[in-house]
Amino acid sequence: VQKPTKVVVRYKGLIDCLYSIARTEGIPGLYKGLTPSLLLVSHGAIQFTCYENLKSLARGEGGAIFAPENGGKKNNDGIAPTSEQRELASAECGVYGMLSKIVASLITYPQQVVRARMQKLQIERSQIKYKSLLQSFGTISRREGISGMYKGMVPNLARMLPSTGVTFFTYEFVNRMFVEGPDENNNED
User: Fold this and answer.
1) Which of 14, 26, 52, 62 has the greatest number of CB atoms lying within 10 Å of its CB?
2) pTM of the model
3) Looking at the predicted structure, is the pLDDT value of residue 185 above 90?
């Protein structure tokens, strides 16, 4: 049995953290990773666009839907679904939510890696290793190849996919209850 080692506390609180970073890295150090963080806003847009397109294809609508109206009861033209279009089960929507999460992650995960690397202070030969968005992409690509941009993605997806599926399932289930009413939804899912 080993004695527990003493835990080193790097910062005493928020103010101490901000002061320490500003003192050691300057004011720009407080904004490391801001550009990739702003670019990551696109993750949600990609995910929801993909999700709506998957639902559209599954319904047999053919065309893409970017802004469903009236709880998904009408397509982009405001036309009610025809007899060829089918209603999707909430569980099916959960699966489409998970698939859209995978697509969005494949597109945006390199930005998450770059942001994490920029925010972690790494000094090499007395110089900061990751300085800017483009320089960081270049450094990672040159040293680790394309696989370096996707390090940690599989565990991240394993952590995120179940909650994503439950979120989309719940959204569609509750949305359907509000649109159709509780009596019409009892035998569906």
Assistant:
1) 52
2) 0.67
3) no
